[in-house]
Design a protein that fits this description.
five-stranded mixed beta sheet, 348 residues, 12 helices, alpha/beta
Length: 348
């Protein structure tokens, strides 16, 4: 895999080095977006970069590719950023949590139960993200946004988190697996395309994913209850620029591009909210629904369940995460509690 990545990046870097010198009035931006099969990419990112030249009165021209178009994997994002093959790059923090656990701090499960709180958390943690990106990866944060929350699909009658005890739950990451274990469930790792069969055949009793993803893959056909508690976090994505690229822009160009990126960030938050709501509506047979109508029972989260998840976050998930992030910044746990913890009302 590393050999393939090195070869692909070498071609891109050589191509970039042969390009004509960049003039201040004609900045050519090489952009790597996240996976192209997502509505966020199709409806927001790709049109944004295509139309940037016209909106900026010719200040910028762009070459936009998605990570899957280049057959790269999500965990290779930071290596790709360091390579210099692209000027601006988007990546989901959960894919690079092992390499950059401090970034993963923005999306620990249980820190937010709705988009308003998630945005408050990200705003509070933004200085931490900016410092980490700048000092370790020579990058500038331009936008932070989120996919729909990772919620719980279950077979049978599951009315609260207490009912997860003894069940097998499909999880998608270390912290989600730990949270499931703390709730008395057994975490099972399954690829997304395998979950439908897994639920149908009893390999798992429950599965965690986004409301929209589960709907588009027909999970509502093989599960009965839907709990919107985001046990899997949210899928936060960061869009960053290499410092070397950003610093070559004039102050006016920086101002223009930053304002454009803020507009894109707003649109991406909007589509995330709409997608989450549509997925929940469709899975439970509620209108309006742009997806596939299902007949699942929606289980509204109780205050007791929220308190339980937040308690486990503070007592179990944050300490586990701190073991990883403290290898890079000794104060990361304290920094998290002073930012996201304070914004979300979480105390240890």
């Amino acid at each position: 895999m590393l050999k393939v990545l090195t070869s692909a990046l070498s071609v891109l870097t050589v191509t970039a080095s042969l390009a004509a010198p960049v003039h201040a009035e004609d900045i050519k931006i090489r952009v790597l977006g996240w996976y192209g099969n997502q509505p966020q990419s199709q409806q927001v990112e790709r049109p944004f970069w295509k139309e940037l030249n016209a909106r900026s009165n010719g200040q910028f021209s762009t070459n936009f590719r998605t990570i899957d178009e280049l057959n790269l994997k999500g965990f290779e994002s930071l290596r790709t950023l360091k390579s210099g093959a692209f000027d601006i790059l988007s990546f989901q923090v959960s894919f690079v949590g092992g390499e950059a656990p401090i970034l993963m701090g923005v999306d620990l499960p249980g820190a937010a139960f709705d988009f308003d709180q998630l945005q408050k958390n990200i705003d509070a943690y933004r200085p931490i993200l900016e410092k980490e990106l700048d000092t370790r990866f020579n990058a500038k944060l331009l936008a932070a946004w989120s996919f729909p929350f990772q919620i719980l699909y279950c077979k049978g009658d599951v009315k609260s988190l207490d009912d997860l005890r003894g069940k097998k739950v499909r999880v998608s990451g270390t912290y989600t697996a730990k949270l499931a274990a703390d709730l008395g469930a057994a975490g099972v790792t399954l690829a997304g395309p395998e979950v439908y069969q897994g639920l149908m055949q009893g390999v798992v009793d429950c599965a965690i994913t986004g409301s929209q993803y589960g709907n588009s893959n027909d999970w509502f056909e093989v599960s009965d209850t839907l709990s919107p508690i985001p046990l899997g976090g949210a899928g936060v994505v960061l869009t960053v620029a290499r410092n070397a690229f950003w610093q070559k822009l004039s102050p006016e160009q920086q101002t223009t591009l930053a304002a454009e990126m803020k507009n894109m960030e707003t649109d991406l938050w909007k589509i995330g909210r709409q997608g989450h709501e549509d997925g929940v509506n469709c899975n439970t047979g509620i209108q309006p629904c742009d997806g596939k109508p299902g007949k699942m029972t929606l289980i509204p989260p109780t205050d007791a369940d929220k308190r339980k998840v937040q308690s486990l976050l503070a007592s179990s998930i944050v300490p586990l995460w701190t073991e990883d992030c403290a290898k890079f910044t000794k104060t990361c746990g304290e920094d998290w509690m002073n930012t996201i913890g304070a914004a979300a009302g979480i105390k240890q």
